[in-house]
Design a protein that fits this description.
Oligomer: single chain
Number of helices: 4
Order of helices and strands: HEEEHEEEEHEEEEHE
Number of domains: 1
CATH class: Mainly Beta
Strand content: over 45%
Number of strands: 12
Strand order of the largest sheet: 1-2-3-4-5-6-7-8-9-10-11-12
Helix content: under 10%
Largest sheet: 12 strands, antiparallel, barrel
Length: 245
């Protein structure tokens, strides 16, 4: 239930001082999740990443409006595609000049073919039409399993473009925990996720989501980047999700 399915994001994207960026598939807080939209399901997301510091090394604020839709009419194997408009709102910057990013994901839900089977998902995000450091072109794979009481654990890995993430710094691990806090309310969901690597995407993120209705939820969280030089200072994130129909 990615931030109760806050499609935009892995998520979201951060455009650091280095101008790297990511488009966001169905995610946890920052990283992709094994959740995949079902056929004709559509998610509209509005994500903001505001720096908690105004220092010279803080990095830029980032704004992301995205749409993700399920396109495969199958129950045991799902495919979603998405597009994001991502910008730092700075006229003339690389991010403002090439704001469109694309992503896709295919996945199998838990218990799809036998009891106890983990969820499996793979895809790509950060695909941009610009032939420069904006295109991270990250390929990833994940497995996830939900356990009674403790919640869901996910683990996987990613590999992105060296030109934007850096040579020998373009790959790493993905991991997360998330859980609906039913003891308090079925509307409350908490998560922690981590993306390794001293690059523009490496970060530890924490947050929680509240579902105001079946189709509208808001996530609030924070992202702490592994390397200040590439990721910048921590960000405060709000992620509004609207699911259709």
């Amino acid at each position: 239930m990615k931030r109760v399915q806050i499609m935009a994001v892995a998520a979201a994207i951060v455009v650091m001082a280095s101008s790297s960026a990511m488009a966001t598939p169905s995610t946890q807080i920052w990283i992709p999740s094994t959740d995949v939209k079902g056929f004709k399901e559509v998610n509209i997301s509005i994500d903001n990443y505001a720096r908690l510091s105004n220092g010279a090394d803080a990095g830029v604020n980032t704004y992301d409006v995205g749409v993700t839709a399920g396109i495969l009419p199958l129950e045991k194997f799902k495919v979603e595609v998405g597009v994001d408009y991502i910008t730092d709102n700075k006229p003339g910057s690389l991010a403002s000049s090439h704001p469109a990013y694309f992503n896709f994901k295919g996945g199998v839900p838990e218990d799809a073919f036998f009891a106890g089977m983990p969820a499996i998902a793979a895809g790509m995000y950060g695909m941009n039409t610009a032939s420069n450091a904006l295109s991270t072109n990250v390929a990833y794979g994940l497995i996830a399993k939900t356990f009674p009481v403790v919640g869901r654990f996910s683990v996987g890995g990613y590999n992105g473009a060296e030109r934007s993430l850096g040579t020998n710094a373009n790959k790493g691990m993905l991991a997360s925990w998330d859980r609906t806090m039913s003891e308090i309310s079925d509307k409350l969901w908490l998560a922690v996720d981590y993306q390794s690597g001293n690059n523009a995407l490496g970060a530890l993120s924490v947050g929680g989501s509240w579902a105001f209705t079946k189709n509208v939820s808001l996530l609030i969280g924070a992202d702490f980047y592994n390397d200040i030089a590439t990721g910048g200072r921590p960000t405060f994130t709000t992620q509004l999700d609207i699911n259709l129909p």
